[in-house]
Amino acid sequence: MATAAHFAFDPLLSPAGAATMVRICESFGSFKMYSEEPTFAGIGEGLPARWDAVRNFVKTGGRFGRNEPLPVLAARTNYFRETYAYGTDERVEGIGPFLHHEGFVEAARQLFGRPVIEPAIVYANLLVPGQELAVHTDVPEFRGVNRKHHPQWLIVAMHHSGLFEPWRMPIATGVAWFHDCSGGEFAFYPDGADAAPVAHPVRYNTALLMDTDSVFHGVDRVAETSASVAGLRPGMRLRFAGDGRWQMTDGDAIVAEYRWQELRYSVSWKAYCFTDAAEQRAWRENVDDLTVEAVVDRLVADLRARGVIAGARPSDTVLIDLLIDTYIRYPAAAVAA
Ligand SMILES: [Fe+2]
Description:
Elements: E1 6-9, H1 15-28, E2 30-33, H2 51-60, H3 70-76, E3 80-86, E4 89-90, H4 96-99, H5 102-112, E5 116-127, E6 133-136, H6 152-161, E7 171-177, E8 186-188, E9 198-200, E10 206-210, E11 217-219, H7 227-230, E12 237-242, E13 245-250, E14 253-259, E15 264-274, H8 277-284, H9 292-305, H10 316-327
Antiparallel strand pairs: 1-10, 2-3, 2-12, 3-4, 3-5, 5-15, 6-11, 7-10, 7-15, 8-9, 8-11, 12-13, 13-14
The structure holds fe (ii) ion (FE2).
């Protein structure tokens, strides 16, 4: 395959603009775990939102094929996330210049050759030492099927199946960093899952932009330690404690304390990329929407055609893993350490 387009920014913002992005994180104050993302009624109810990535991470031990107990692996990739802006809803003061960053908008135009760019979301990820982000592709969006209402693992499998491209809304993603982090490289696969990844270092006020819905990527481990993830449990929070310190809390109890420079902080920007205003309108007005039922029926029919399913349709539990394993071809893990 051709190398996937990606755009680098160095610097991304003015010095004052970059300092604001750090202050925004501190003033946001409290970050919850990604595992608190909602799951949805219907197929896969109760599964983790990114069952696809979790399943692969646990099966392979991550990019470096490490062999660790399940609770440790789960804690490693259960990082902290909050949303700074959603559509026109700017949830933190000062996020405007990042949300409407002209360099991101222009790169997004070039990425898909689609001129109408609509910034959709800005969110921040925080990882503590010992954490990493399992290799994955991001949750794409289709007309009628999106992450707010439908299972994320299913939407990812839909994209990898290639069966629903006429309904897909291409999304450009910028990932920005606002400190120098030792470890925690952004590892991505611009030449496809079968080729070697690029491990991009995290440097203050820099960014990359690409189609992260199609390009596999992850975050390498932030510091080689298991001590700080041993006590991590779903439901904990990461809180800014002032004076360059962050605390992991379980209710009122403080479980661990970190200095700013020990964490990994990234801010992601996502924008819809439309061909023209008519397409933008069709998306907004829900013309020609897919339904989850029709999507699953189409995928089951395809699994039958491929010989993956014969006879009666399997239970949802079996079907879900068949969908993930058939369509999402992850990069192989490196030789076990
Ligand atoms: Fe991602």
